[in-house]
Amino acid sequence: MVTDAHTPINCLWCGKTIPGGRRGHGHPPKTCSEECRKARASAREKARYRRAKDTQKWQETRAAYIEKLKIRTAQDPVFAAAEAQRQQAIRDRYREKLERDPARLEGYRAKQRAWFHNLTPERREDERARNRAWYASLTQEEKVLYYYEVRRQHALNQLLALSEELRKKQ
Ligand SMILES: [Zn+2]
Questions:
Q1: Residue 170 sits in which domain range?
Q2: What is the whole-number distance in angstroms between the Cα of residue 43 and the centre of ligand 1?
């Protein structure tokens, strides 16, 4: 029987030789470590998503899903609350991720500014009205929390700008 158990195999993610310990169970391993396996799987998943997301079938499925979500949200307050919480958690995670990476955060902000800048005056006014309505819908307690969040964000931005300045001086 031909076996490749002792020929070096290289990691399909980082290219290093896969250590012997990872071999010997069924399929030959494709990556050298758990980190490489995860990184490769995530890159493959992203590529699959990029290929699929512009197809008509994908867009139809997505539109149907959003429509179903809308109906259920309108009919079921418990579901609506859970969904709002889930969406908020996604936004929080995304924001935390951005805050850990100043360059990405600045890129994101520039995109937001450009988006707002390119709106028609009417759409811009709509956005402002939406924000005002959102703020008006907050309870007094939430307004206080929001106020502290804005101050925290402002302090964080100043810190980031300062560390960026220091980094440039070095
Ligand atoms: Zn590797």
A1: 138-170
A2: 13
